[in-house]
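If you are new to this repository, start here. Below is one unmodified record pulled from the training split, so you can see the exact layout before writing a loader.
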Amino acid sequence: MAAANTRNARLKLAIYDHYGRRCVCCGETNIEFLSVDHMIPRDQKKKEHGIMIYSIIAKKGFPEEYRILCMNCNFSYGHVGYCPHRPFLRFGKFGLRRNGDLG
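And here is the target side for that same chain:
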């Protein structure tokens, strides 16, 4: 169990390092507050959550459909479709868009 936890922690840091180790919305860098965000809505990626997301991202070669957000920004995008830090950007069914755009 300890070996798996160490491996998962290293993989998580590798993912965060690859995607910039900061929230792309507000700039938060405290790793305890950071999380991986699916830029493609989660209902299309049902099996990609929790600790498994890190190995899936690595196996896929760090695709651009993921990004790092802090927990607050991630929660806001997921529950209301935008973040107060960037209210002009909304998450529609076709991904991130500016307010007023179709989608």
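Two things worth knowing about this chain: The helical segments are 2-18, 52-59, 71-80. The two ends are 44 Å apart (CA to CA).
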